[in-house]
């Protein structure tokens, strides 16, 4: 047991000596972050710290690498020829090397300059270097979630913020399918800044009118502008309706249409008649059907059911069948010599027939009673007249 403990202690001491010796011998360079996003033609801020270990520092260098094996020195400090901390492409932010700060601004990033190397050079040509990658981004990356009508959502547009000398300005815009520009003053736009990017968030409550509309994000770095755009996809459903005539003459044709506007599309309709789906009809399409030669048994309530994202949509319409009350039609005949003159004039006979049809028993009795009373009164008057002239 004691032998195992001693071996363990010796191993830990040996490992500590090896690690300590390596740390003291070699330098160390840290980039934060290790990758920087930049816009071509603009500058980039490289945050950098270093330690030189036991190596006596002689100089530090910045190199640009088109390929890992093809690097050229673009900055050296201290420079025996020029005692300055800025060149045409590099601005050294901390001239005091004892502070171990290698942060720099690289100006006018070019498309073919994607990697930069920082090198610590000590006496005896001992050197240690590390690379930082530059990611060129010439348009913002916009994130648009799947939208639902009436539900608040956040659209984000991160823009590179590689250089404090040119902070970006981000603006949003929305153009409808008809080409109208939406005013976004009633929406919330927030901005979060960091040392590597600007993040603009548009808080939007979409409607169905914004489906397939175009949303854009414009970023301005002074005279340098980058932009991007995308299409809004809004999930929505309108009210289910049955279109058609609710009143139809007997013998005519009735056509009903079950219509609903939605995205994504709803299921095919299921029709019912007076609560049952066992109806006989001549279907013309998935959304409509037609009944020809309508009879009185076709009158009733017609229903339509569709499914939208597990939601049941229902609508109904009541169809009334009207019967033709003019069952007996008079066939008009015309004389050969008079085209518009009827052969038989039935106006007088029609009046007499109407008078006779309107007579009833009570009217007849009233008429007879009146005649009897009149005869009695006339007889009394006549008798009085004869008696007085005797």
Describe it.
By secondary structure, this protein is α+β, with helices and mostly antiparallel strands. The protein has three domains: 27-136, Immunoglobulin-like (Sandwich); 147-235, Sandwich (Immunoglobulin-like); 238-322, Immunoglobulins (Immunoglobulin-like). The chain contains three helices and 28 strands. It has helices spanning 2-25, 347-358, 361-388; strands at 28-31, 35-38, 44-46, 48-51, 57-67, 70-77, 90-92, 104-106, 115-122, 127-136, 147-148, 153-160, 169-175, 181-182, 188-193, 197-204, 214-221, 224-231, 234-237, 241-243, 247-249, 254-259, 262-263, 270-273, 282-283, 288-291, 300-308, 311-322. The strands form eight sheets. Strands 2-10-9-5-6 form a five-stranded mixed β-sheet, with no helix packed on it. β13 (169-175) and β14 form a beta hairpin. It is rod-shaped and about 180 Å long. The model is unreliable at 1-25 and 327-351 (pLDDT under 50).
In short:
This protein has three helices and 28 strands. The chain has 390 residues and is α+β, with helices and mostly antiparallel strands.
Task: Provide keyphrases for this structure.
3 helices; Immunoglobulin-like; alpha+beta; 3 domains; 390 residues; 16% helix
């Amino acid at each position: 047991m004691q032998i195992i403990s001693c071996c363990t202690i010796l191993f830990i001491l040996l490992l500590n000596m090896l690690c300590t010796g390596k740390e003291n011998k070699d330098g160390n360079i840290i980039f934060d972050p290790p990758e920087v996003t930049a816009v071509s033609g603009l500058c980039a801020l490289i945050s950098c710290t270093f330690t030189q270990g036991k190596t006596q520092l002689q100089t530090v260098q910045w190199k640009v690498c088109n390929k890992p094996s093809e690097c050229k020195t673009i900055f050296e400090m201290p420079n025996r020829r020029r005692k300055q901390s800025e060149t045409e492409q590099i601005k050294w932010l901390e001239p005091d090397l004892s502070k171990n700060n290698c942060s720099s601004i690289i100006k006018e990033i070019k498309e073919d300059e994607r990697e930069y190397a920082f090198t610590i050079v000590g006496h005896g040509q001992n050197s240690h270097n590390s690379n930082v990658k530059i990611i060129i981004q010439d348009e913002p990356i916009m994130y648009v979630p799947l939208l639902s009508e009436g539900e608040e959502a956040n659209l984000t547009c991160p823009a590179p913020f590689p250089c404090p000398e040119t902070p970006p300005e981000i603006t949003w815009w929305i153009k409808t399918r008809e080409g109208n520009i939406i005013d976004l003053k009633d929406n919330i736009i927030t901005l979060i800044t960091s040392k590597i990017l600007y993040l603009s968030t548009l808080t939007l409550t979409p409607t169905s009118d914004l489906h397939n509309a175009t949303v854009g994000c414009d970023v301005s770095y002074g005279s340098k502008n980058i932009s991007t755009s995308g299409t809004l996809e809004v999930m929505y459903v309108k009210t289910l309706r049955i279109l058609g005539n609710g009143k139809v003459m007997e013998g005519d044709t009735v056509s009903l249409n079950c219509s609903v506007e939605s995205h994504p599309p709803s299921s095919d309709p299921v029709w019912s008649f007076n609560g049952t789906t066992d109806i006989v009809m001549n279907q013309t399409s998935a959304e409509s059907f037609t009944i020809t030669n309508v009879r009185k048994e076709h009158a009733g309530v017609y229903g339509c059911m569709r499914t939208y994202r597990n939601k049941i949509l229902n609508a109904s319409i009541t169809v009334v069948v009207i019967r033709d009350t003019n069952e007996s039609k008079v066939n008009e005949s015309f004389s050969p010599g008079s085209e518009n003159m009827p052969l038989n004039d039935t106006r007088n006979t029609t009046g007499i027939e109407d008078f006779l049809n309107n007579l009833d028993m009570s009217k007849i009795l009233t008429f007879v009673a009146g005649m009897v009373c009149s005869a009695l009164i006339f007889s009394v008057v006549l008798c009085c007249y004869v008696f007085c002239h005797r």
